[in-house]
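Entries read sequence, tokenised fold; example below:

***
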Amino acid sequence: MKKTAFLLLLLAGSLSVLAQPDKYRKVMQQRIGELDSALQKGSMGSLANAFERIAEAEKNQWLPYYYASYCQVMTALLEQDKAKVDPLADKAEALIKKAAALAGESNSEINVIYSMIATAHLTVDPPARWMQYGQASAAFLEKAKQQDPTNPRPVYLEGQSKFYTPEQFGGGKAAAAVVLEQSLRLFDQFKPASELHPTWGKTSAQYFLAQCK
């Protein structure tokens, strides 16, 4: 009888362990599925908080911190009140540092977010901040490309940057189109490491390319 009870307890414990990863996966899938609608509704800040709660519960998973930072930096990039941008970008940086501590600084997706954070800081005062944040953003993108040449996101963001850069400084629509087309080829070939890994960017790349025509 004691042996049977012990086996039942052991089985229950095993099932509990197995259930946890499945619960994490389902919650993450649900939140990742809300990214596009949150962007359209302007509720990326709330979604960032949801991802952060998942991260604090899981402790050893880097992707919730990554998505929390992504949502936070997108909020910063879309914020019209420039006085609010730096604090939002600083919060995004704190979150991506936590992701990097778990995933490693050599992660291409991590450096994409670092680049976006630098860009957010740049938007507050582009003429005054270009030397610091413009160069930092470009350096993070180059690092991300080197770390994973198959990752389309740093190439897309490079194309977006060229779109907004004047022709006399190496940008313009023609220059952007070349890079955006390259990013779309990479998007078509890209295979994420799992169903929870980043896939965002293709729709935006298509949008910017259409604006270049």
